[in-house]
Design brief:
The protein is of the alpha/beta class and about 210 residues long. About 30% of the residues lie in helices and about 25% in strands. It is globular and about 50 Å long.
Length: about 210
């Protein structure tokens, strides 16, 4: 399976500056790719377009040559930097996982998810605890691509290591495609087999 962005351009409104201009890239299933760029250069915008959360102004995103599915649970999962933005505050954490059908004990154990957290609301958990749920939810059996947008930036070092160790294990065992979005080129080169610098493929004018 392959996901491809073809000549993606994006602006929030007509007659405003382009955030992205003629960006093209491909990610194969089983490939680990780092997307590196300075803050404010459109990394998060691009990954939201690739995951189907934003519609490009021009261009298209194709999954095996077809548009991304509009219904059902997507095979492309995006993990945000700020987990509170991705979780319904009215749901208990048990329902958050039920939505994706992801209740693998080995995943929850590897992420350090306590079972009593399942009966809590998002406001009753820390940011690090919420991010563990977001990662677990993204690893349901229908996932083929994982997009991690500065996923571990706000976490302590121990939690970062736990999450990345599990992610890389799942990526390798299940041959998932991984797109790591970061401003940290050293980390991207350490984790990923290939690194893309957004400023080199984004032709927008400053």
């Amino acid at each position: 399976m392959q996901i491809e962005a073809r000549n993606i351009s994006f602006q929030y409104r007509e007659n405003t500056p382009w955030i992205l201009k003629d960006v093209s890239l491909k990610i194969e299933e089983g490939e680990r790719v780092g997307l590196v760029g300075p803050s404010g250069y459109g990394k998060s915008t691009l990954v939201k377009i690739l995951a189907g959360y934003l519609k490009p102004t021009k261009g298209e995103v194709l999954l095996d040559g077809k548009p991304l599915p509009k219904k059902g649970v997507s095979p492309v999962q995006l993990i945000y930097q700020h987990p509170e933005k991705a979780i319904n505050p009215r749901w208990k954490m048990k329902k958050v996982l039920q939505e994706s059908g992801m209740f693998r004990d080995e995943v929850m154990d590897a992420l350090g998810i306590e079972r009593d957290w399942l009966e809590r609301y998002p406001r009753e958990l820390s940011g690090g605890e919420l991010q563990r749920f977001c990662v677990a939810r993204s690893l349901f059996e229908g996932t083929h691509f994982l997009f991690a947008d500065e996923m571990s930036t706000m976490l302590d070092v121990i939690t970062q290591a736990q999450i990345w160790n599990l992610m890389l294990k799942e990526v390798e065992e299940r041959r998932l495609g991984l797109l790591m979005v970061t401003h940290n080129a050293y980390l991207a080169e350490k984790i990923c087999a290939r690194t893309i610098r957004l400023e080199e493929i984004n032709t927008r004018e400053e």
